[in-house]
Amino acid sequence: MDSFVTIKENVTEQIIEKKSKFIAKLYYVENQKEIDNIIKDVKKQYNDARHHCIAYRLIENNSIIEKANDDGEPSGTAGAPMLKILQNNNLCNVLIIVIRYFGGILLGTGGLVRAYSESLQKAIEKADKIEKQEGREISLEIDYSDYEKLKYFCEINKIEISNVEYKENIICNLEILEGQIDKILEYLELKSIKIKNCKVLSKKFIIKKC
Asked: How many whole angstroms separate alpha carbon 48 and alpha carbon 68?
């Protein structure tokens, strides 16, 4: 997978449908352990609610893991429609939990699907979406005299400097798109920024659009 859309920050929205309260909590997640811990914490926090319905899409080993759970609601009325919405919005590394407080009036299967879907849609509309693309982190060692030129280059080209170490020389970690290492090094040389050492570090998804 070269890129995916996710959310910048966790958001919460809620709706009331025939006296039932639906609280939608949309989370950014990076691994299964984080998902399990969030679900556990939410169920503990809202332990008086009737249902805690979930859906998530998570990228692991370049594949998408998907799961949905109706948590006691009629089959296919909560988790599945929410997962479909995540798919339609191309959202990954996200977890949605919708907590329902029953209001005493039955909604029927169609009403449940609409309520769970609407609560998630409102959360998605509220969230700031970002695109993450496959990239690399590289470590560059440069002279102190070249640091300001490197910072300016990164700023105008929207390249993130993820870490800086001040040693005998300055060591900067840059987040760049996959396949652009040679092009960037050539451009830096044209700008008379001397690279004393360059190390290609691990792959990672980096933010390119907000």
From this structure: 21
